[in-house]
From TrEMBL:
Stored InterPro entries: AH/BAR_dom_sf, F_BAR_dom, FCH_dom, HR1_CIP4_FNBP1L, HR1_rho-bd, HR1_TOCA, SH3-like_dom_sf, SH3_domain
GO cellular-component term (any): cytoskeleton
UniProt record similarity statement: Belongs to the FNBP1 family.
Name assigned to this protein: Formin-binding protein 1-like
Compositionally skewed regions (Acidic residues) per UniProt: 465-475
Gene: fnbp1l
Compartments (UniProt record): Cell membrane; Cytoplasm, Cell cortex; Cytoplasm, Cytoskeleton
GO terms for MF: lipid binding
Coiled-coil segments on the chain, per record: 345-379
Keyword entries, A-Z: Cell membrane, Coiled coil, Cytoplasm, Cytoskeleton, Endocytosis, Lipid-binding, Membrane, SH3 domain
One Gene Ontology biological process: signal transduction
Length: 544
């Protein structure tokens, strides 16, 4: 089926059809462009979403929970997924849209050339037809003039009054017109033959060839569209394996969520290292009741002069329980003494590890500089060895500073570990052997009583049985005093307002969290920062 033979007379329709084909190709190219813009927007929005939920974090804020780590893994996979969407957009833009637009320009140029050839051929045929038509009209005119001259000659020849000269003149005019008519006839015949020949060439050679070229162009356009359809799909197909890996990574991240491990991390993060509180002591309020001689003397000895110890002569106040409340925020100290023992130990160990890493880097840099210095000394043309000495000195200075910091932190760590171990030993010893004298406080501030004297004297109140603070109607005994080095506003709940140089009673030592419990002269109790005061403990309060 050929356009040249079957559509020989449809030049205008083929002109419109070829234009429609190019318009359709450009319409598909526009569709691809809009599709890749959607992909670009989608990828951009995905990246923005990932960036929004992956904020910049300091090293201390790095997530450790498996649920958090899995979520950030999913965000990383989603970021890779958005990258694949960008690849799709880029491939569509380069291999489909760009190729379509280039091909469209080539088609337009080719179509223009074929149509121009067709119009030129049509114009030449029209020109041949005009020449033939003009020669035909001229032949027609010459024949009419010859017929007219023949009538004039015959009329003069039959007219007896006509002179001989007039008849000869009419005869010569007749011969001239007949000759001209014959020439016009020959010219017309030649032009007619030429037109018929050109017309046959036009409809059997030129136009079929031009229409065949247009048909080939249109078929190539159709094939190109099919190839672009496949390329459009192949772009998606090529990224499917990588996208599948991204999705598999998300599934793997979901499987890595471990609730037991997260629970363990919570314990590791917030474990204070303190021992749980012990039992409340029995408080015997019958010690002041007069007993008969047969009942035995089980009252407690009174203080000299019948007066109470001024350290105990304070108003009854309620002790604040912080077990479920919000503890006042302690000032951040370099030795991390504001933290509970367990947390302090972990932080100090982490700090020591980081300092060791920095020290190793400085040592590596020093070794590299020394090697370079040796090379310069052996090969002076390569550089001046003296130019490296300032850098080497600076590195050694940094190493000394880091060693000093490491030693200082290791001392604090040893102190924490020593206190933690001795506390456990003393607690177990006090609970098992009960050798602590009655009315005396252990180094950790806990009181024990001697069960062998249970019937000879009433037990003394033991407010330090707990490491945390519980409500108690009886005031705690003073174990020392302190002088305020700085003022403290006591704005947090459970803290005590303190002025500079103010003297207060110490009723509970620092448990390792950086806070000391004190009492004012007026009986008001609360916590103050240990680093804000100078503490003096009573000698009898330091027994084991």
């Amino acid at each position: 089926m050929s356009w040249g033979t079957d559509l020989w007379d449809q030049f205008e329709n083929l002109d419109k059809h070829s234009q429609w084909g190019i318009d359709f190709l450009e319409r598909y190219a526009k569709f691809v462009k809009e599709r890749l813009e959607i992909e670009q927007t989608y990828a951009k929005q995905l990246r923005s979403l990932v960036k929004k939920y992956c904020p910049k974090r300091s090293k201390d804020d790095e997530p450790r929970f498996t649920s958090c780590l899995s979520f950030y893994s999913i965000l990383n996979e989603l970021n890779d997924y958005s990258g694949q969407r960008e690849v799709v957009a880029e491939e569509m833009g380069h291999k489909v849209y760009g190729e379509l637009m280039r091909y469209s320009q080539d088609l337009k140029a080719e179509r223009k050339h074929h149509l121009q050839e067709g119009r030129k051929t049509q114009q030449y045929l029209d020109q041949c037809w005009k020449h033939m038509d003009n020669s035909k009209k001229k032949f027609e005119r010459e024949c009419k003039e010859a017929e007219k001259s023949q009538l004039i000659y015959e009329r003069l020849d039959n007219d007896i009054n006509a002179t001989k000269s007039e008849v000869e003149k009419a005869k010569s005019q007749l011969y001239l017109r007949q000759h001209m008519a014959e020439e016009s006839k020959n010219e017309y015949a030649a032009q007619l033959q030429n037109f018929n020949s050109e017309q046959w060439k036009h409809f059997n050679v030129a136009i079929p060839q031009i229409f065949k070229n247009l048909q080939d162009m249109d078929e190539r356009r159709t094939v190109k569209l099919g190839e672009m359809y496949r390329s459009f799909a192949e772009v998606e197909r090529r990224v499917i394996p990588i996208i599948s890996k991204c999705l598999e990574g998300m599934v793997t991240a979901a499987k890595n969520v471990d609730e037991h491990r997260d629970s363990g991390i919570v314990v590791e993060s917030f474990k204070s290292g303190f021992e749980p509180p012990g039992d409340f002591p029995f408080e015997d309020f019958s010690q002041n009741i007069q007993r008969t001689g047969s009942d035995g003397a089980i009252g407690t000895p009174k203080t000299e002069g019948g007066k109470a110890d001024p350290k105990h002569a304070v108003g009854r106040t309620k002790n604040k329980l912080w077990l479920f409340g919000k503890k006042p925020k302690a000032p951040t100290l370099e030795d991390l003494s504001h933290l509970p023992p367990e947390q302090r130990r972990k932080k100090l160990q982490q700090r020591i590890d980081e300092l060791n890493k920095e020290l190793q880097k400085e040592m590596d840099q020093r070794d590299a500089l020394n090697k370079m210095k040796d090379v310069y000394e052996k090969n002076p043309q390569m550089g001046d060895p003296g130019s490296l000495q300032p850098k080497i000195s600076e590195t050694i200075c940094n190493m000394e500073k880091l060693r000093s910091e490491i030693h200082k932190n290791e001392s604090w760590l040893a102190e924490v570990e020593g206190k933690h171990g001795s506390r456990s030993e003393r607690r177990s010893s006090a609970d098992v052997n009960h050798h602590a004298p009655h009315g005396r406080e252990s180094p950790e501030g806990s009181y024990t009583d001697d069960h062998s004297q249970e019937h000879r004297s009433p037990p003394q109140p033991d407010p330090h049985e707990f490491d945390d603070e519980f409500d108690d109607d009886d005031p705690l005994p003073a174990i020392g005093h302190c002088k305020a080095l700085y003022s403290f506003d006591g704005s947090n709940e459970g803290t005590l307002v303190m002025k500079e140089n103010e003297v207060l009673y110490v009723i509970e030592e620092d448990k390792g969290d950086g806070w000391t419990r004190v009492r004012k002269q007026g009986g008001e109790e609360g916590y103050i920062p240990t680093s804000y005061v100078e503490i003096t403990l009573e000698k009898n309060s330091k027994g084991s």
